[in-house]
Design goal:
about 200 residues, alpha/beta, 6-stranded mixed beta sheet, 10 helices
Length: about 200
């Protein structure tokens, strides 16, 4: 289940684009995980299916291989295109992937927090990611960014100039090596800077 001390996640989805997008988001949500993607169940089996901590699986793959996933339902997250309860497999955790990125990130963070007791069952985050790299003011700015405030609103809330907000925003992204608000959201929630219910 672990390679180099890192738990492994498998994505099994014949839609290559969807799998690659989900892989990118998962690597942001759970940087301590190794994520492998497979286009079919046969590929997963050929690579040691039981070496994985979790399976993120397209619904059709689950339906075609129900016995395998039923036995491992606690480790299986079914990827659905609809939140319609009649289309969900009730015995499995389901994740709707046909939603805006911010919503998908929020669902993954909720799943990660509920399934792993705020990460207690996961290996520790590497020291480099745990060190405080942002100033208190940058943390305040980041918190407001991920809650959806625009630069002008952040400036008013913190009683600072618009140019200062823009500078802080650039510094935050540079320091953390992030390019999107979604990645920033994941960082802020995972480090406890923002309550998931506020995003």
């Amino acid at each position: 289940m672990y390679i180099e001390g890192r738990p492994k996640i498998a994505i099994i989805d014949p839609n290559t684009l969807a799998a690659l997008g989900l892989k990118q988001i998962l690597q942001n949500v759970m940087p301590i995980m190794t994520v492998d993607d497979y286009g079919s169940f046969a590929e997963l089996e050929a690579n040691g299916a039981d070496n994985y901590f979790h399976y993120f699986v397209a619904m059709n793959v689950v339906l075609e291989n129900k016995a395998f996933f039923q036995e491992r339902r606690r480790k299986t997250i079914v990827l659905t295109l609809s939140l319609d309860s009649t289309s969900l497999l009730s015995e499995f955790h389901c994740l709707c992937i046909n939603v805006p990125e911010q919503e998908l990130v929020r669902s993954l963070l909720s799943l990660q927090q509920s399934a792993h007791g705020r990460g207690e069952n996961l290996p520790p985050i590497p020291e480099a990611l745990r060190r405080k790299v942002l100033t208190d003011r940058e943390i305040e700015v980041m918190s407001l960014i991920v809650q959806g405030y625009i630069n002008k609103e952040i400036a008013e809330k913190l009683n600072i100039g618009l140019a200062t907000v823009i500078t802080h925003r650039k510094n935050i992204m540079d320091k953390l090596g992030m390019k999107s608000v979604s990645a920033l959201t994941i960082y802020a929630v995972m480090h406890g800077y923002v309550d998931i219910n506020k995003i």
